[in-house]
Design goal:
alpha/beta, about 425 residues, binds pyridoxal-5'-phosphate, seven-stranded mixed β-sheet, four-stranded antiparallel β-sheet, single chain
């Protein structure tokens, strides 16, 4: 028999939480339980202060001199060095640029070029759509010689064949939170002569990642989710040092040139990771990201992962305890195989989530029937988990979600 969990138990966990001080660094509204940091991380004091300074003091006072004077020009590399520490890479293996979608385009194109004659891009059928769309667009651009082969997430290892050029996967599944075996899949791909590209959108800043330890070739990831860079903050990309001077990425813009300010006629790529840049970096949002990365770096990753798993487990357990019989089903795996989010299905998932949001519990909906809740350990408290479930229980018991306003679909869900 399991004992009942009370709100007092959870409030005690908050008192003992080694990460409890981090919440103060974020400006979260008091009446909000924000379980959507996996989609858009909240603003931190670090970011707000840094953007203010960059606007007023740097852009405002020093204008174009700031590219040199305030080091804007190498901010993509410097922010990349910070992210490298979070994903188990060397400092010169990560750079911040563009969006995740664009970075995937660049690296997938570069990877295919390294495997001429091989025609298959292997991925998961339920991968995040932009990753699949990017592969489809690139295949089309390359003349249709390649095939995007999509299989179930459990069938990846068995589907790596000698025609496989690239295995392109998202490490933590955006809907279920399931973690792929990065080391094992990478090893199998290499044994078959293929390359790997891992998308770390739901991994970086949420759980330990060891790109070097897993011998990963390429990776991309997102700056505005667990890294809290702000809406549309630039993304990052990783290229293993051993491949950096071998690859050619197709968006050959001047920032990836070896001497952009010589204004030569012909493109010559920079050495190292820099050749993966394309155009001018977005300094405001990049500065915001660079500042918020200091928070992620100050947190102990082991404590972060432990709290993330514990929050998810408590949430699942409380839903079983408080909301039985309402047709809510957990689709996320156990903690050890799960990232920092937990998802449930319900036939009225959309309306239920809208009602929760209206009551200050913010998760999100993923079509067709998934309610997704992210537990970012830097600012979510154990007691928040109790309060979120209490709200959910009330919404289900009163059937408040049946009101027509909760069925209207906005363009972003
Ligand atoms: C969020 C997310 C992206 C986002 O890509 P953008 O180019 O920033 O819109 C890409 N891939 C995955 C797996 C994601 O979860």
């Amino acid at each position: 028999m399991t004992t009942v969990v009370t709100r007092t138990d959870l409030a005690l966990c908050d008192v003992a939480d080694p990460l409890r001080e981090f919440r103060k660094l974020f400006d979260l509204p008091d009446d909000l339980i924000y379980l959507d940091g996996n989609s858009l991380g909240p603003v931190s004091r670090h970011s707000a202060e840094r953007v203010r300074r960059v606007v007023q003091e740097q852009w405002g006072q020093d204008l174009i001199k700031s590219w040199n004077k305030h080091g804007w020009i190498d901010l993509p590399q410097r922010a990349g060095e910070k992210i490298a520490k979070l994903v188990g890479a060397k400092p010169n293996e990560v750079i911040v640029a563009d969006s995740t979608s664009v970075n995937l385009f660049k690296l997938l194109a570069a990877a295919l070029r390294l495997r001429p004659g091989r025609t298959i891009i292997l991925s998961e059928d339920s991968n995040f759509p932009t990753d699949l769309y990017i592969a489809q667009g690139l295949i089309d651009l390359l003349g249709g010689q390649h095939e995007l082969r999509l299989v179930d997430g459990t069938a990846i290892l068995g589907s790596i064949k000698k025609q496989t050029a690239v295995v392109m996967l998202t490490h933590v599944h955006y809907k279920t939170g399931r973690i792929h075996e990065m080391e094992q899949i990478t090893k199998k791909a290499h044994e078959a002569g293929a390359l790997v590209i891992w998308d770390l959108a739901h991994s970086a800043g949420a759980l330990p990642v060891d790109l070097n330890g897993c011998n990963v070739d390429f990776a991309v990831g997102c700056g505005y989710k667990y890294l809290n860079g702000g809406p549309g903050a630039p993304a990052f990309l990783y290229v293993a040092e051993r491949l950096q001077n071998e690859i050619k990425q197709p968006l050959s813009g001047w920032m990836g040139h070896k001497a952009p300010f010589e204004f030569g006629t012909d493109y010559e790529p920079a050495q190292g990771i820099t050749r993966n840049l394309c155009g001018t970096p977005p300094i405001l949002s990049l500065s915001s990201l660079d500042a918020s990365l200091d928070i992620a770096l100050a947190a102990d990753m082991k404590a972060l992962r432990e709290k993330s798993m514990a929050l998810g487990d408590v949430f699942i357990r409380l839903i079983e305890q408080e909301c039985p019989g309402f047709g809510i089903e957990c689709i996320s795996p156990p903690a050890a195989q799960r990232g920092s989010q937990v998802s449930f299905t319900h036939e009225n998932a959309y309306a239920i989530m809208q009602t929760l949001i209206q009551r200050g519990v913010v998760g999100d909906f993923r079509a067709p029937d998934v309610m997704r809740f992210g537990f970012a350990p830097l600012y979510i408290r154990y007691a928040d988990v109790w309060d979120a479930v209490a709200t959910l229980r009330n919404v289900l018991e009163t059937r408040a979600w049946e009101q027509p306003q909760y069925r209207v679909r906005a363009s972003v869900t």
